[in-house]
Amino acid sequence: MMRLDRTELCLIAAAVVLAAGGLIAPGWLVFLLTMAFAKALVVQGVVMQMRAGLVSFGQGLFYCVGGYAVGMGGHFFGLTDLAVLLSAGVLAAMLLAMVLGLLLTRYRDIFFAMLSLAFSMILFGVLVKSPQLGSTDGFNVVSWTLFGWSPGKDAAPTTLLAVTLAASLAVALLLYRYVQAGVGVLCEAVRENEVRVEYLGLSPRWLLYSNYVAAAAVSALGGGLTALAAGHIDPEMAYWTTSGEFVFIALLGGTGHVAAPFLAALVFAVVRTYAIEFVPHSWQMILGFTLLGVIVFLPKGLWSLFSRAKAKGAAAS
Amino acid sequence: MTHTVSVTRKTLRRLSLTMAASALALAAVAPAQAAENGKFRLGIVTFLSGGAAGPFGVPSANAAKVVIDQLNAGALPAPYATKGINGAEIEMVLIDENGGATKQVEEFRNLVQRQKVDAVVGYISSGDCLAVSPVAEELGAMTVFYDCGTSRLFVENKAPKFVFRTGLDAAVDNIGAARYLAATRPNTTRYAGVQQNYSWGQDSWADFTAAMKQTLPKADAVESQMPKLFQGQYGAEISAVSVKRPEIVHSSLWGGDMEAFVLQASARGLLDDATAILTCGESALERYQGQAPNGTIVGARGPFGAFAPQNALNTWFTGVYQNAYQMAPTYPASKMAQAILGLKHAAEKAAKAPGEVPAPAAIAAAFKGANFESVSGTVQMSRADGHQALQGISYGEYHFDAKTKKAELKNVKSFSGSCVTPPDGTEAQDWIKAGFPGAKCE
């Protein structure tokens, strides 16, 4: 029997509370939560790489692959099962990441950022040039089933929220263990001093490679869930501004804790939707000021609000 | 000193924690403003930022504002003289369309479920329309698309109930353009195209070339250029088109791209020898100021803007718009006014008592197949099972008088709706390739 520590129990409790809340929440809030958590999964992919010192400005690539796998699976292969569609997206993203990773893990810093961006823009370009896939207009995703059960239009949003929360919880628990395990700690070591890791007899490149592939899988899962929730996909998913949004949310939350991206995605979604409602002409400014505020006052992201005790200890030493 | 700093830090941290918490709390509590205040809450969605805001979004939002103000004042000519919608004051909720289809789905749900709007009018981007349409049907929310032109809208939404479109299918623009050329320039043998490389441009070119094969079978497409959206610089494309010496240059470019292209193409002499036919050209009618060569053919995606007929509603609309914004309304503005008037017509037809805000299903039932008066003349909702407007299209030549600094349209030709619109259940491309079976042209 696997023993769970306090953080893990907290994560499970949070997921259960949110899922229960989903049953009584108004429709728009259920949708907002679903989208926020699906996006947070993509952000987890960005954060995984940030912990290893790499900023991916092209995580939209895997987000888009996950989304298009769901859309195309339904449209061209008649697949409707949610689990099959999501797995197809994850698998496709991992295969792609295994190929691209060979090249990308040779690069660091801005070179990695730009090259990852370039690959996602190539996918964008290919999709725009494909009229059979609806070009820039994209296409609608067929309605999904869950192990043969087809939820009606009333049950679908809540069910999808539950599925998204379950997926988020599974990813959060896995990542929590991953961060503490040898390979997770080594990712931070690579960020701090790559040469030293090599002297320890380890290969930073293969560490980064496996981390890159794992991050791609997590992001594709987020993309697939987004496509199922929104019911529509378009090449915008691979556009660089979408990837930029994921980096934005990653910075907002910080890399301090596995729950930080979820919190940040939630805050981002709430701030954005109310900014759009109250200042329709300049909502982007509100988002900009929010990020600016976080950078200035909370350089380690929103999560540093919760790790105050630690910060105090560090200040004293 | 350090003490002060740490206190400030602590306060700030607490402050931001409170702010984050209250933001989340607000999200959970705020939905309370139901439309139980007796007003008609109307969601308006159009581009307020990004490249489509200047030429389309902002004129549309401006038109919505001025029309709603006038409606609330009861200042419209017949048959729209009742205050607001059926006597209920209209409350506008304005939302930015920028940010992609996924976000628009989220904001549409927020409009309907949180803001409790009674109807939504909006959407310029075809991708947004395609994404929003199934959600509108799912939520049972009365939705009027005023501008997006995709032919796929009612192909994907086969049995529409709550989704209506008062604007025209984009295929109409290009069939109309081909018919205009056949009527005014029957000796054309060489034509070229410059389109933005995205759905709109690709579809426009496919429809136009297919229609030209029918209306002017002797003409050849000698060149097609697809610069990317918002490219702004068209030197290479203009050179590539120039060397092929076309007589006609077709372009579905819009907004700043279209204006930049016209400016650069006329400076480089392309438009000395060739005539441009611009399907979205009318939106810059007041802005060319002679920079487009005289004789350039422009369209307005229907009988809108400068092509709108003379009637009491159009005179009223042009007057109030001009008063408020010191310029004549362009076609996106007319189309927005048309969508709001259509909605008002349907809601009033559905209402049983004055002051009542009818349910979406009742408005939809009244809207289906309706004939209503608009700034562009009478609109028949007679396609897609009564959910799609059928109207004609006009093209004309731009002429600028340097003395009076006024632009005017000459050689205007209009084609009736049934002459340029595919019948129900037929995809535009199939209809064009089959030689427009059943088209009735005067």
List keywords for this structure.
heterodimer, A: 317 residues, mainly alpha, two-stranded antiparallel sheet, B: 442 residues, alpha/beta, Rossmann fold, 2 domains, 7-stranded mixed beta sheet, 5-stranded parallel beta sheet, 15 strands, disordered N terminus, LivM-like (chain A), branched-chain amino acid transmembrane transporter activity (chain A)
Short note summarizing the structure:
The complex is a heterodimer of chains A (317) and B (442). By secondary structure, chain A is an all-alpha fold.
Termini Cα gap of chain B: 87 Å
Please list the strands of the largest sheet of chain B in the order they lie side by side: 7-6-8-9-10-14-15
Distance between the termini of chain A: 39 Å
Instruction: Write out the CATH superfamily name of the largest domain in chain B.
Output: Response regulator
What is the helical fraction of chain B, as a range of percent? Answer: 40-55%
List the helices and strands and how they pair.
The complex is a heterodimer of chains A (317) and B (442).
Chain A: H1 6-24, H2 27-51, H3 60-76, H4 82-104, H5 109-128, E1 139-140, H6 156-180, H7 182-192, H8 194-199, H9 204-230, E2 232-233, H10 240-253, H11 260-278, H12 283-297, H13 308-316
Antiparallel strand pairs in A: 1-2
Helix pairs in contact in A: 1-6, 2-6, 2-9, 2-10, 2-11, 3-4, 3-9, 4-9, 6-7, 6-9, 7-9, 10-11, 11-12
Chain B: H1 2-29, E1 40-46, H2 53-73, E2 90-96, H3 101-114, E3 119-122, H4 126-139, E4 143-145, H5 153-156, E5 163-165, H6 170-184, E6 190-194, H7 199-215, E7 220-225, H8 235-242, E8 248-251, H9 255-267, H10 270-273, E9 275-278, E10 297-299, H11 312-325, H12 331-350, H13 360-367, E11 371-374, E12 377-383, E13 388-390, E14 393-401, E15 406-415, H14 417-420, H15 428-433
Helix pairs in contact in B: 2-11, 2-12, 3-4, 6-7, 12-13
Describe this entry's structure for a reader.
The complex is a heterodimer of chains A (317) and B (442). The N and C termini of chain A lie far apart (39 Å). Chain A is mainly alpha-helical. Chain A contains 13 helices and 2 strands; from the N terminus they run αααααβααααβαααα. In chain A, α2 (27-51) packs across α10 (240-253) and α3 crosses α9. Chain A has one domain (6-239). Chain B folds into 2 domains: 40-168 and 308-390, 3-Layer(aba) Sandwich (Rossmann fold); 171-300 and 392-433, Rossmann fold (3-Layer(aba) Sandwich). In chain B, 43% of the residues lie in helices and 18% in strands. A 7-stranded mixed beta sheet of chain B has the order 7-6-8-9-10-14-15, sandwiched between helices. In chain B, β11 (371-374) and β12 form a beta hairpin. In chain B, α2 packs across α11 (312-325), α3 runs parallel beside α4 (126-139) and α12 (331-350) crosses α13 (360-367). Chain B is globular. Chain B starts with a helix and ends in a 9-residue tail after the last helix. Residues 1-7 and 29-34 of chain B have low confidence and may be disordered. The chains are: A mainly alpha (317), B alpha/beta (442). Chains A and B meet through α2, β1, α11 and α12 of A and α1, β2, α3, α4 and α7 of B. Chain B: Belongs to the leucine-binding protein family. Chain B: Residues 41-387 form the Leucine-binding protein domain. Chain B: This is Branched-chain amino acid transport system substrate-binding protein. Chain B: Residues 1-34 form the signal peptide.
